[in-house]
Amino acid sequence: MLKLTRHLYQWRPDAAYFDYYERAQINHILAQHDPTTSMFTYMMPLMTGSRREFSTPENDFWCCMGTGMESHSKHGDSIWWESGDTLFVNLFVPSTVRWRGSTLDLDTSYPLSENITISVGGRARRFALAIRLPGWCADPRLSVNGKPAAISRSRGYAIVERKWRRGDSVALTLPMALRTEPTPDDPRMVARLKGPVVMAKVAEEASLVPFFLQYDRAAEVYFKTYTPEELAAIEREKADARALDARALDIARLGDEADEAAHGLASKISYAVVYHGRKGRDARTGGFFEFTMKSETGPLVLNASYSGDDKRRLFHVLVDGEPVATQALEAESRGGFIERDYPIPEALTRSKTLRIRFVPEAGHSAGPVFGCRLLRAT
Questions:
Q1: Whole-prediction pTM value?
Q2: Given a cut of 90, is residue 324 above it in pLDDT?
């Protein structure tokens, strides 16, 4: 996409192209490489609570990483552009350009700072300096040689044309107010940005932090907005969950390594997942996962939690090898979780423990299951 953006810009220069380019470069390309280890991610997970998986020096280096490896050799190739007697500044990256007898130094800590300085050296001559004004910035401020200057705008650029001399300097300030942007497909799902930087919430921080810098920490990037009525419904759901927990003979917190070990988890072609901050586990075609739960004699119910977003899932639930249910998931409660109860025949409850197994139908997945409770039937 960055290659395509450069081509489009060459055909029709417009600062908006580099608004996109900059956001992709900072929030994805820089985020894909950990500068402390020089390792690269296989993918950039954005699911709540997920973290990046990095390559290793000797054993892990995947094909998908190779398709974007060249991006890290190109951080400097789109900072400065020229057209006739105009020199364009499209990216705010510390750099030096020597152009037709002039030398220009760009100094900044952007995007962690809102201040950019361009110093001019070389022989005196007249040319236009076109500095990109990002579309997200409502109140850019420009000064020349320390004096405030009116901004002459053209196609998203501040144009400063004059006879430049050695020692001249331009200072651009781009105030970065925290703002909210909705996702294209859901106006109620939003991200928080500061300048061009996507901000994230991590467990170790009370405030939002730049997403691209969270190389080894689980992060949350997208946030659902709710009405007061919806928040009240969520609180009722939490109260219902606490009531179920109080009724439970046993609770299996799938996806949690310690809890799975305590319940004797066994699995094949099965993976721990995190969705909307909740841990779970699924199994793919040809696989399964199973675990042991404490039991007692009498009518019991197995309660399982699923994502209301999942669809085209079909699987079977077995207790001590006996089928008790077949479950299909077809995205019936978007954005939330659903509970399903499976009565267990009393003949199976005479043991002190029960072995619960989830098995996908061929061509489908089982789950993910975001926890199970074994309940006394009411």
A1: 0.73
A2: yes
